[in-house]
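Good morning C.,

I know you're traveling, so I'll keep this short. The sequence:
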Amino acid sequence: MLTPMQKDALAEILNVNMGVSASLLSEMVNQKIILSVPVVELKQGSELNAASLKRGDLGVDKSIMTLVTFGKKFKGNALIILPQDKASILANACLGNELTYGLEEGLSNEDADVIKEICNVILNAIVGEFGNLLDVRLEYSAFEMDFSIDSLDEKRIIPPDSQVLVLYTSFFLTMSQVRGVILIVLSASSFDMLIKKIDDMLRGIDV
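The tokens, ready to paste straight into the viewer:
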């Protein structure tokens, strides 16, 4: 469980990096993109699976997931989950295409490439900052996209004994808003490492 001060410190660290990500994305797509200040929750890996996300945090069946795995000393999985129809809206907005609300056609290859690039920028900024904060070198796996979050269970992306930072955020574009969920899945030792660093920072502020 996170204390209010730990949660505030994490939210501030993440907010700075979301701002950096938003600036990079704005330059990439030549329009203003704002990422909302993330609401941070801590959950046990055993609490999260595809069914619970569909039923609760997302509330939809059709979602897409982008994933990167990182290690070695500080290790885990980082992923962004977006409802498929909203992902299509986000991709079209970034490409400057006419927005097509309510269509169930899925993502084109071009749409998927745009979403992968957007998520890559955000996840690398968040995980990279954790690496900088802890002064550890991170090694990344290949960036992956899955068109069903059922693979969360099939690939055991969220181990039951992991600690998961759940971040709720929204993309604000010129004509649309898209809500998503970011999951930072950490091994127990990596989570302890992060919280120890946060506590050290908080003690430094109090001195």
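Safe travels,
E.
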